[in-house]
# Entry
Amino acid sequence: MAGHTKEAEKMTLDIISRESSCIECYRLLSAIYSKRGNYTQALDALDRALQQNPSDVTVRAELHFSKGNQLREMKRLDGAFESYKHAVELKPDQSQAWMNMGGIQHIKGDYAAARMYYQRALLLNPGSKLLRENLAKLDRLEKRLAEGPPPPRSPNSSDQTAGYEGLGSELTCLKSEEDE
# Structure
């Protein structure tokens, strides 16, 4: 597989050397670099595609969405959120971008904003199982927070699993449909 991506990269760079405004070439490079785990190079390729300032609004929105995904992969959540925001400003019907903005707010602990973004995505994609799962996780998390911390367990307690579960496990399960 690595040989195929090297060959694809070489061919794509050759096209770019002759036609530097090839937006699809930069997208392909981004995918190649991302697959290899070269996230900085993948992000750079997307930025170069955006610098071409495509006239098609859909293409620009898709590039911002891809950039958001790349930044999310790099754990740069603020930048990812901004990229998703640009995507929905250009194409408000991108349910995946709305869901990912909800996921970022969920992780950051802004549950009201997370719910708003999830619900916006659900309006656009009412059949999404992942959105319903993420909203259910948010409901459970908010319920546990409203109940407050559990009473302290005695050191002699035989049931070490009873009581309050940590919140961290709830957030690690957030997914987007592209992660499936």
About this structure: The radius of gyration is 20 Å.
